[in-house]
């Protein structure tokens, strides 16, 4: 089992920045790729960003490219999402996810590829 706890969410004005953190515990040695997803009210959960175990591969949704940066510190079992130039449409609950399957060249972007999920942290961007 892997437990994931997100933090760093909050209320910010448009154009501002936030840094989300996701701390993992439990069988962290089994983790491969890590991802961030988000879900806005009335919408389906969607992919935001992902990073491989080595951090050599990353992937981003088109809507956040150039604004968000995913990173990880394996020594701390923590993955981060730096969010800059935030927009009201970024408002959502942000979820961290861990993939424990065999590593692949391309980081997974599908919800079903991830095995463990955190409880989420609310990000609200005011206009």
Description:
By secondary structure, this protein is an all-beta fold. The protein has no helices and eleven strands. The protein has strands at 2-7, 10-13, 18-26, 34-39, 46-51, 58-60, 68-73, 78-83, 92-98, 116-117, 121-126.
Features:
0% helix; mainly beta; 48% strand; seven-stranded mixed beta sheet; globular; 127 residues
Q: Which assembly state applies to the chains in this document?
A: single chain
Portion of residues in beta strands equals: over 45%
Mind summarizing the main beta sheet?
A: 7 strands, mixed
Which stretches are poorly predicted, pLDDT < 50 over at least 5 residues?
Answer: none
Care to count the β-strands? 11
Indicate the radius of gyration in whole angstroms: 14 Å
Outline, from the CA principal axes? globular
Structural class based on helices, strands and sheet pairing: mainly beta
Q: Helicity level, as a percent range?
A: under 10%
Ends distance = 40 Å
Please tally the helical runs, counting DSSP H or I stretches of 4 or more residues.
Answer: 0
**Global mean pLDDT:** 95
Q: What is the chain-wise order of helices and strands?
A: EEEEEEEEEEE
